[in-house]
């Protein structure tokens, strides 16, 4: 079969542009609305997208004055969406730093059962001291420590998901035996961060494991992705940088003993689709005008690890910013932003304008054919296996992409016209993992 | 308005009788089926029940050979059910011993938003060493310690639910102000078990707090209920014992400075409804025949805190059982079982027969009129404000109760014929809590 694109819709209430909620047509309460999320997910499902995705951090993560900052917990929201959809995959972000493996493993196994094999987990280590202070800590654990814990968290979780063999439940009414006792086993994990006896209280789920997704591009993040991730979200501003990232991560996967085709790389893009190129540019400009730069400065300062007072709107970034090695969170985001500002010689105000739209992701602005061409260019030139679609404005941005761009790609044979599988792993062409306990006992 | 009954359906896949999955008509995979739970919930909603409820413990809690022991995590399953229903309340059990307040508070606030005000939390401290060993401990914390932690957990959670005032979100597109900064506040909790900065990442939910439910009947449990619970599930085998419990708990609520009408007491009952009394008794007997007593002995031994070998099927319970004070979990369940066995002079086999059906709850066996009469008797004689309905077999048990018993109670004016409110609190006649932060700042 010809290699085909994969599409994920990054759900974000009224859109990824921070001013999108202020547009006349936007529902400023969409962040807490099941119906708004049902609509977005159905549009993506009708367009045969592989999945939808929700970001997360267990903290109030932006100034509540500036934009809708309240959110629905992702595993619950996706469980509700599982009941409202049939085929599309459902990827929730959850933190390995602020959860216990038993609790999270059972939630993802439950989501996989509820959705009949459509669950995915975007694994994050959660940057920031504010989150740490919701969990009894003074400061966040070191970046390296967070990744060590994440690695052990995955080792525990996969053991728990494997603690029932696939054939454990026999449901023999006559003999009165529901599951075979020797096919349900304790995991007895005793590690540095966790001790977990098990077994899990959820039988092995349709996909075996949820799809494992990762998004950090720091050195630790890329090593973690090479070892564990089956799909990777990434932010790269140019084709060349996307190609470099793509080649590097596939190489790392091979070095980790894996098949590089089983690591699906999905750059984030912000499609801005107009019937004419001029119309698309006009929409872009309208959004930039809506940003209140004084609100955005605080967020930028946090990512860069400097005091907000040091950033002047009409000057370039300060020269003596902390290096990537000196900050403990958002490492790759920080470097991407700094490199971008310096390369294009942007003032802080101009930088905020760019970030408000794409937050470091590439904006594809143009007519449907132009956007489809750029997607094809990335896909056929070693920069992407598909895309994480992050419309600046929702639902209109995904409606336009689904109605105008997707049919062009389908016509070119680059995207499915119907689902061929039923699980999220099948959509992405990824195998169902064998049961490690089962293999060990053969 | 006349005082009316409240009904909760205790969801339990093929029924509360441990052999129910073996009946020819039972789906032995119902425990992991969204559709099976959707059907049960819709039957209860069509009958105008106040709520459905899911038990939980973060552990594989029964021998997987004996009955369906895998389960779907309750907050996720109820989120999926929120998307499939409109009016009925959704009560999930969750542990204060094996969760962090920030994580759980945001899940219940999210469920309340998703369901438009229909979330309830059955607060448990989780008995048993097996659960503790899924969370890095060797043994469960002491009963008293678990309740101290639960109390602080509730103090943190209510502060988090109050960390946004009800009027915080103004969504002023013109000025670009989504929420008022001074109406979203850190909680700064520094206690013995938890330090939590806050604010919550979820704005105040439709009900303010989820309905707070409790079910333990130990001394610590009853004190906790008197302080926090708005609805209480209880197991009492006779009318007299239900009356004593009812009077005692209402008295404790008054002593805690609360309005006793705002603590709704719901004894668990197992209705066995036949068109004739003989038919009802026949169904009862058929289920008892299906139990494999050798499987049930282990569970009974665990609750009693003795080795399984000490229990002989055709002898009474040993005389020298550990006292309630000597065991660290299931205290009230243990005492109820021991008292019952001694009072009725039961052998272990007979006791297992009784427990397999009602697990210590009262079985109401008879014709629809007989069952309705008993319900009315309890309700009008200081033993109950309503009932936690635990059919031995599902879905048939709730279908029969809804079709045959509910209409009799409606005709007598004892139960609603239509929902009058939209939230779970409104169904139970309970107030929406005022915002403590808001009150403090006036």
TrEMBL record, chains A, B:
Question: Luciferase-like domain spans which residues?
Answer: 27-383
Q: Which residues cross the membrane?
A: none
Q: What InterPro entries does its record include?
A: Diverse_substr_monoxygenases, Luciferase-like_dom, Luciferase-like_sf, NTA_MOA
Q: Which GO terms describe its molecular function?
A: monooxygenase activity; oxidoreductase activity, acting on paired donors, with incorporation or reduction of molecular oxygen
Which keywords fit this entry according to its UniProt record?
A: Flavoprotein, FMN, Monooxygenase, Oxidoreductase
Query: Which Gene3D superfamilies does the annotation name?
Result: Luciferase-like domain (3.20.20.30)
Pfam families in UniProt:
Bac_luciferase (PF00296)
**Residues that bind FMN:** 56, 93, 143, 147, 217-218
Q: Which family does it belong to?
A: Belongs to the NtaA/SnaA/DszA monooxygenase family.
What is the official name of this protein in its record? FMN-dependent oxidoreductase, nitrilotriacetate monooxygenase family
């Amino acid at each position: 079969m010809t290699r085909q694109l994969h599409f994920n819709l990054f759900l974000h209430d009224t859109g990824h542009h921070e001013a999108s909620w202020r547009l006349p047509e936007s529902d400023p309460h969409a962040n807490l609305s099941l119906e708004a999320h049902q609509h977005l997910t159905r549009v993506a499902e009708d367009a045969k997208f592989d999945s939808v995705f929700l970001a997360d951090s267990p903290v109030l993560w932006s100034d509540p004055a500036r934009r809708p900052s309240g959110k629905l917990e992702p595993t619950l929201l996706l469980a509700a969406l599982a009941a409202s959809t049939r085929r599309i995959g459902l990827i929730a972000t959850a933190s390995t730093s602020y959860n216990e493996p038993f609790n999270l493993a059972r939630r993802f196994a439950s989501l996989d059962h509820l959705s009949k094999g459509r669950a995915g987990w975007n694994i994050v280590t959660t940057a920031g001291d504010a989150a740490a202070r919701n969990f009894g800590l003074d400061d966040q654990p070191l970046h390296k420590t967070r990744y060590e814990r994440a690695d052990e968290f995955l080792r525990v979780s996969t053991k728990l998901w494997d603690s029932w063999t696939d054939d454990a439940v026999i449901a023999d009414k006559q003999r009165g035996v529901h599951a075979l006792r020797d096919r349900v086993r304790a995991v007895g994990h005793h590690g540095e961060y966790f001790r977990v006896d098990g077994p899990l209280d959820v039988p092995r789920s349709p996909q075996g494991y949820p799809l494992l997704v990762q998004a950090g591009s720091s050195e630790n993040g890329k090593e973690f992705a090479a070892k564990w991730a089956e799909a990777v979200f990434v932010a790269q501003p140019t084709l060349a940088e996307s190609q470099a990232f793509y080649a590097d991560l596939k190489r790392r996967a091979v070095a980790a003993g894996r098949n590089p085709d089983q690591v699906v790389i999905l750059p984030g893009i912000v499609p801005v689709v107009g019937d004419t190129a001029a119309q698309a540019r006009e929409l872009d400009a309208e959004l930039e005008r809506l940003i209140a730069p004084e609100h955005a400065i605080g967020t930028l300062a946090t990512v860069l690890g400097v005091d907000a007072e040091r950033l002047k709107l009409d000057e370039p970034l300060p020269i003596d910013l902390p290096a990537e090695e000196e900050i403990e969170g958002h490492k790759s985001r920080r470097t991407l932003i700094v490199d971008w500002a310096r390369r294009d010689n942007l003032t802080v105000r101009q930088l905020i304008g760019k970030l408000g739209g794409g937050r470091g992701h590439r904006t594809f602005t143009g007519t449907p054919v132009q956007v489809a061409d750029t997607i094809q260019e990335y896909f056929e030139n070693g920069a992407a296996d598909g895309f994480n679609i992050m419309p600046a404005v929702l639902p209109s941005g995904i409606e336009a992409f689904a109605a105008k761009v997707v049919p062009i790609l389908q016509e070119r044979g680059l995207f499915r016209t119907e689902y061929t599988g039923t699980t999220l792993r099948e959509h992405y062409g990824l195998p169902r993992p064998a049961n490690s306990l089962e293999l060990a006992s053969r």
